[in-house]
Amino acid sequence: MTTVFILAGGRGTRLGSACDKCPKPLLPVSGRPFIEQVVRFLQAEGLSQFVFLTGYLGDQFPLHFRKVDLPHAEFQFIKEDVPLGTGGALVSAISRYPQDRPFLVLNADSFVPFSPQGLMETTQDQDGGVVAVHMRNGSRFGSLEINADQQLVGFKEKQSDSQNALINAGIYVLSPKLFKDFNKGHYYSLEKDLFPHWIRQKGRFRVFPVDGPFLDIGTPETLAVAADFIQSLIHLQRAKGTE
User: Fold this and answer.
1) Would you give the distance in Å from CA 42 to the centre of its chain?
2) Residue 189 DSSP SS3
3) Mean of all residue pLDDT scores within the chain
4) Is 122 exposed, middle or buried (0-12, 13-18, 19+ CB in 10 A)?
């Protein structure tokens, strides 16, 4: 069974007062919190084990998901006492919930529809993989550097002139063995600390491009179109169900 670790510790500062009493991933979209909509999509894709890595207002996640009607889904919650970064939160989580097979990691405030099964199959001979999205204007996002074999070479910072970029969707599959060199309780960034170390150690990470749509609810403008995005996810899964 594949475990999904969900990074949900951010404060959502760009959304202003909207996140004063509610963590960003729990903001309502089409009648349910954004991250619940994502979990429902993933469950329909065959995933059922979810571990939330929380920080800001983290107590609200178990309060919500323990009363949600999601048959067969299993939820665990880890709230960090001090900010550990995306990588540090994950290192500590792996020490608490050891894994014996590759697992998924995703950001709780962004998403792109993808095939978990396709991602796992494509990366089964790798150390991991990164979901990527082709975007005409990728200036708001970090992009990926890849080689001719679709292997990850590195991450690029946001660039104002980034056109036709292959952006990082914030969804990963990772092997447990990657975490042996890191100590829990330390601050690490997944993209700035862990991945550069792994790449220097000759780790192999396949980039898995998808067509989108992609949404990051981190700004008032993108949150405003989140309902349309969720409806596109619902229509996509309904269409798959009729195939």
Assistant:
1) 12
2) coil
3) 92
4) middle
Tell me the CB-side half-sphere exposure of residue 11, using CA atoms within 13 A: 8
Q: How far apart are CA 3 and CA 243, in angstroms?
A: 27
pLDDT tens column, 39-53: 999 999 999 999 999
Non-local (6+) Cβ contacts of 35 within 8 A are: 6, 8, 25, 26, 108, 109
Per-residue tokens: 172: 């990963």
Phi then psi for residue 11, to 5 deg, are -95, -20
- Of 3.20.20.70, 3.40.50.150, 3.90.550.10, 3.30.1700.10, the CATH number of 3-131+171-241 is 3.90.550.10
pLDDT in the model for residue 158:
66
| Whole-number Å distance between alpha carbons of 3 and 93 | 12
Contact criterion met (CB below 8 Å) for 151 and 206:
yes
In this structure, what are the phi and psi dihedrals at residue 160, rounded to the nearest 5 degrees?
-65, -25
Report the amino acid identity of residue 75.
Answer: F
Domain ranges of the chain: 3-131+171-241
190: its two tokens? 């997944």
Could you read off the pLDDT of 96-147 as tens digits, one per residue? 999 999 999 999 999 999 999 999 999 999 999 999 998 876 667 778 999 9
Closest CA to 194 of 98, 88, 109, 93: 88
Do 22 and 60 meet the contact criterion of CB atoms below 8 Å apart?
yes
pLDDT of residue 161: 57
